[in-house]
User: What shape does this take?
Amino acid sequence: MAINNLASTLEKEGITSNQLATRAYLNKSTVKSIALKKRTGAPGTQLALVNALNRLTKKTFAVEEIFPV
Assistant: This one.
């Protein structure tokens, strides 16, 4: 099982996984699988998700904050 804070961050920020997928130019099922901790996502995918999350929230999340090592 993958470890990440994506689902809780999305819920806290009021963003859906579909909104994030669209903004990150990723497949919706990929983002949903990562949020549900079924997949970890490649480093490039994680970076795309965090960058999209930052654009949507106008905050500055670090990759390590959403995807802890």
